[in-house]
Design the sequence.
């Protein structure tokens, strides 16, 4: 059971309501419900496997006074590894992300605190227990004109038993399907290589977690030549693709830490 504690030092005029979504609802449904009920100028996200800093909301509120479309947050893992954007905050955010390999294309809606109206007409995928925002994030970011970074606001507990490291990878096609569909959505755009590379990552993960091996192999086999030519794929992921198609993925186990 994860407990949410409302900070005591909220800025004046800022309040927090806790809404409970009943049943075993996927995270996409909870996010959509939160989005539907939101009334403020900005929308911020947090997950059960994250801790936020004590000054998380006050820092966001201070940055929002500038009226920017989006506030970008950094985070640190529980092993001490920092995930910090190198970009200074200049340039169109859509272009910055598209030109920075896979950053921001993965399931990280909580890194982007955007004005509420930017979410209009969009919703999270309620089929997915993970990757519920895979196709959504590029759509939102494409609407951002002005943005600002405010540094580390989250601590991500990578060993807390989050869905990303749990059984859902092994029992569901959702993540692979979401990745493949998004790759098609962004074909022919500046996001094409990054979106396709993410789809290959998903196929590799699904296969590695022993859940949907044949579907993963079918995707990788169909796109093998493109995967080998894709500049966004590291040498390590290209090796993974080959090993999976040769049915030698057991060799990935001792080499996992390289990727």
Sequence:
């Amino acid at each position: 059971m994860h407990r949410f504690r409302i900070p005591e030092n909220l800025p004046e005029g800022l309040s927090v309501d806790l809404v409970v979504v009943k049943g075993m609802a996927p995270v996409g449904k909870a996010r959509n419900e939160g989005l539907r009920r939101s009334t403020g100028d900005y929308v911020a996200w947090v997950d059960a496997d994250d801790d936020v800093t004590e000054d998380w909301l006050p820092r966001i509120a201070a940055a929002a006074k500038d009226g920017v479309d989006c506030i970008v947050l950094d985070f640190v893992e529980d092993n001490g590894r920092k995930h910090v954007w190198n970009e200074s905050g200049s340039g169109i955010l859509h272009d910055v992300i598209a030109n920075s390999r896979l950053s921001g294309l993965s399931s990280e809606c909580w890194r982007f605190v955007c004005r509420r109206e930017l979410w209009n007409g969009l919703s999270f995928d309620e089929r997915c227990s993970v990757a519920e925002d895979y196709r959504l994030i590029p759509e939102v970011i494409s609407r951002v004109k002005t943005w600002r970074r405010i540094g580390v606001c989250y601590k991500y507990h990578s060993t807390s038993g989050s869905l990303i490291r749990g059984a859902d990878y092994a029992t569901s096609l959702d993540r692979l399907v979401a990745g493949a569909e998004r790759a098609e959505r962004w074909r022919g755009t500046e996001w094409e290589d990054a979106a396709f590379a993410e789809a290959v990552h998903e196929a590799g993960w699904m296969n590695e977690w022993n859940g949907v091996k044949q579907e993963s192999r079918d995707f990788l086999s169909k796109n093998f030549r493109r995967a080998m030519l894709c500049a966004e794929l590291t040498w390590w992921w290209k090796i993974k693709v080959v090993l999976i198609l040769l049915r030698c993925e057991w060799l990935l186990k001792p080499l996992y830490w390289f990727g």
In short: The chain has eleven helices and six strands. Confidence is low (pLDDT under 50) at residues 101-106, 160-167. The chain has two domains: 27-156, 167-258.
